[in-house]
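Below is the data:
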Amino acid sequence: MKIKSLEQKIGMRMTIKSLEHLKKVAGHQGDGSSDRASFFIPLNGGFRSSKEIGYYKFDDSWEIFNHISGAWEDYDSTEEFIECEPFIIEAINEGALIHEEI
């Protein structure tokens, strides 16, 4: 029996490098798979802010589910997303938005 590596057990993690990178990772694939990808932002005290983010290239829209508050947010454009989600944009700029494949 083969033992899985630690990465395979806990899932793969990737730091999001830019807004364009986020669009690619969170982009809707159109293949019937989940429309959103899982992300987190590390917080003080070892906590984290977990989110599911979906990006739809065909109309430049976004949707976000915030696990902490249980709130859904929908944005009609990237401009609106940037304006309304400064915490996510700041996390990208600081190398703190992490994509986690579960």
